[in-house]
Amino acid sequence: MQIDANKDVIHRWIAFANGGFSGAFDEFIALDYVGHFGGADMDRRELERLEREFAAAFPDARYSIDDVLAEGDRVVVRVTTRGTHRGTYVGTAPTHRAIEFTSMVIYRIHDGRIAESWGEMDLLRLMRQLRTP
After folding, report:
1. pTM
2. What domains, with CATH codes, occur in the chain?
3. What is residue 82's predicted lDDT score, i.e. its pLDDT?
C-alpha cells in the first residue's frame, strides 16, 4: 500500500536525522524539493544547509515521532526534538543547556522521496531555552 510506503520514507528520514544527517540527502529528498517553513520557501540545498547547521549546534539531537498521519501522497508528523546546545546556533554561542521543543511537518511524497514540505516548529520555546537567565 502506497500510504505505508510513504510513512516508511518519513520514518527513515527521521532515523537519518537521528544520525546527525550524516551522508547524502539523495535517498530522501527530491532534486526539485520545495520547503515552506515559517513563511519562507527553500530549495533542497537550503534544507541541507539548515539541517546540517542544526546538527552541528545540537550534535546529540534526537527526534521522536509523537504522531504520524497519512493520506494519499501526504504524511503529517508531530515530532519532539531533544538535545544539548553545543555549537553556535543563529548567533547564540553554546550554552550547553538541554533543549526540547516540538514541531509539525506535512510532507508530500513523490516517487519515494520528499518532494515538498510545510513545517512549523516552536522556535520561541527553543530560543527561550538558550537565553541567558
Report:
1. 0.94
2. 2-18+30-130 (3.10.450.50)
3. 98
